[in-house]
C-alpha cells in the first residue's frame, strides 16, 4: 500500500504514516485492545484536509469492505458496506430508476465517508444533506460492541456519527434511501449573471423551480466584470438514460508537475473559455449525469495540477442576510492577495435540517475557493477568509480544511463539545487534535485555575 494512496486529496499535508487493514482494526476493536487515539477510518481519500489523517496513530483502510448487500427496488432502500463507492451505488440502482438523493462533487467517495462528513450537493434546498437519507448504520466502538444506530435506536450515536468525521467509531455498513428519478440524464440550463447582486436576485427563484442549482463565479474578473458568472440549474430528464456510464474518464495527470500549472494566465484564459462555452446558449440542454454532477472525475489525479505542495480549499457558509456583504468581501480578499481560484462555486443552502449533531450546511450561501499552496502567503489569505466568515456569523467547512485555528472551529461549531463527549477514545484525527482537543485542554486549564 503506497503512502500517497492514504493521503489527503489536497496534498498539502503528509500522507498517513501507518495503515491498518479493516479486518485487523475490527479484531482490535472487538477484542477491546485498541489504544486511545490509535485509529481513524479512511475511505477513498477525497477529503481535502487532515480530517482523514491520524499522524499519531493509524488510518483504517475501509475500501475492501465494498459489498452491496441488498436493494429494495420498491422503496429504494439500499444496504451496503461502508467502503462501497458512490459510483457503485449509482451503477447498481440506476437500472431500477433510482439515484442517490444527495451527491457531492465526486462519485469517488465511500458510503462511510459520505455519512461521516454529512456531504451536501446541488440540491440542499430540497433534499438537505446526505445524512437526511440515512436509515441506519452499524457502528463498532472500542468497547467491543456493535451498535445498530438509527433515529429511533441509539439515537445520540446516530446523530453524532453523521457529520462526526469518523470520530465515534468504525462505520461497518449502512442503509440509505435513494430517490426515484425518471432518468439519470439532466436537463441543464446556464443563465449568465453580470454581478453578484444579480445572482442573489436569481437564487431563490432558481431553487424553487429546480431540483439542482449552483453558480460558477469568474473569480479573476475585474472592474465592470467583477462578480460575473453562470447560474446552472437542472432537473432529471423525463426521457433519458437509465444506465450508469463508465465512472471516471480517459484523461489523467500521469505525473506530478514540478510547479503549479494553474497559474494566473492559465486561469484567466480558462475562465473566459468556460464562460463562453457554457453561457453562449440560453436554451436548456440534456446532458449526462457525469458531466453535470462530477465534471472533474473525468480527469484522473487532477489535484496534481496544483503543484508538488498541493492545494488548500476554503468553503464557507454565511447567513442569507449577511451574504450580500460577506461573499463580495471574500472574493475581494482573494483578489487583493493576488491568489486565483481555479474552482469558485457559490450556491444557496436551504432550511432542511440534518439529523447530524455537527453539520456544516445551514441556511445561507456557501462559497468554495481553492488555491495552490504558496506557504505563508496562502495561509494568511485563508486566515483572512476565516475572519470574514466568522464575523458574518458563518462557518468554515472542517472536512475541506487543513489549517483552521481552534477559535475558528469553535465559532463555526459552538456545540463541538457534544461530539467530544460521544467521541470513541480509540479514534482521533489530525483535524480534531489541532482544533477541538486544543480547546478541550484550554477549557480544562481554565477550570483548574478557577
UniProtKB/TrEMBL annotation:
Pfam family, one: FAD_binding_4
UniProt keywords, alphabetically: FAD, Flavoprotein, Oxidoreductase
Presence of the UniProt keyword Lyase in the record: no
Gene Ontology MF annotations: FAD binding; oxidoreductase activity
Range of residues in the leader sequence: none
The keyword S-adenosyl-L-methionine is annotated on this UniProt entry: no
Gene3D superfamilies associated with the record: 3.30.465.10
Domain FAD-binding PCMH-type: 6-181
Alphabetical list of InterPro entries matching this protein: FAD-bd_PCMH, FAD-bd_PCMH-like_sf, FAD-bd_PCMH_sub2, FAD-linked_Oxidoreductases_BP, Oxid_FAD_bind_N
Family: Belongs to the oxygen-dependent FAD-linked oxidoreductase family.
Name under which the protein is recorded: FAD linked oxidase
